[in-house]
Amino acid sequence: MHHTTLAQMAITALIVALLPLSIAWISKDASRYRKLVWIGVFLTFDLIVFGAFTRLTDSGLGCPDWPGCYGLANPFLAHEEIRAAEALQPTGPVTMVKAWIEMIHRYLAMAIGILIVAMMAVAWYRWKKGRQAAYRPGYPTFLFFFVCLQGAFGAWTVTLKLQPVIVTMHLLLGMGLLALLTWYGGRQDQLLRPASAVVPPARLVPVRRLALASSAVLLVQLFLGGWVSTNYATLACTEFPLCGGKLVPEMDFEHGFHLWRELGKTAAGHYLPFSALTAIHWVHRNFASVVVLVLGWTVVRAWPIAPLRPLARAIAAVLALQALTGVATIYLNYPLLLAVLHNAGAAALVLLLTMLNYRAKFLHDAPAAHR
Which segments cross the bilayer (predicted)? Predict the structure, then answer.
């Protein structure tokens, strides 16, 4: 790719990033840096939802190279190449609409990368000046390397032609970035507004353990959900709670859960049998009951603790919404809006569980910090 194209893309991403950077700069918040972190959380959540929209509209190869579009900075400049590809295959994978969806996703991702670079730069600068706890540079530096890894998987998603394990890892890393930024935001909140409520540590220990268990269970379900989506197995079962008229349908776990293979193919290069897609869908569907039970019990234990009650209430609401949208996508034959909402609900659970984990830890550690 020509260096002029890279410069044009960098300038576009910087323009996208200037709005959130300006919001943080002119903010009357007691800590502009804290504001910047939470803007990063907000945009990362948006990126995950838009990434789901990109995947669900089959726009992941809207521009079949990376980082540009046919070696150019945007679909306007690649108009001829896109129209030629669209003429050969009118329904995709390359169309003008899909190219724009894919490039908007990339620009938003690059803008978030710029925000994290800004966090890291400010942290190092302020740390060298005053050694303030809010600006310890280790965490934002780790975020920088993490977002670079996420960017690498974004590139491999395109260059390896939507290989399911790569796309699923790209999704999990996006959720991981959301969790890391949320944790960092919680730390900034704690430094700005120390806890006033005192909760006996003995009441918090079981909630902390359950919150960690809930995060682990949710991570497994995120992988399974990503595996369903990247293998296009959402409609492998079109009824609920049965699948193909049976509680336990015919399933091919060996091919369905073989990780390193091409999209729609077995490891040997043959077409993936429908029973493999059924296995992928069925495991995700049934593991959802484990998620509901574990997260539901976490909500029950956290609810009586006043500082944790708002988070418990929000988790309960999102969990119910997830169950509703998950079943509705089956009965309504996979409408796009519901599928995007289901992905947004998963991201919301990641955000809320991270906040619950941090809040429970902070409240548990607060009495020791005051001794």
Answer: 6-24, 36-56, 107-127, 139-159, 165-184, 210-228, 282-303, 315-334, 340-358
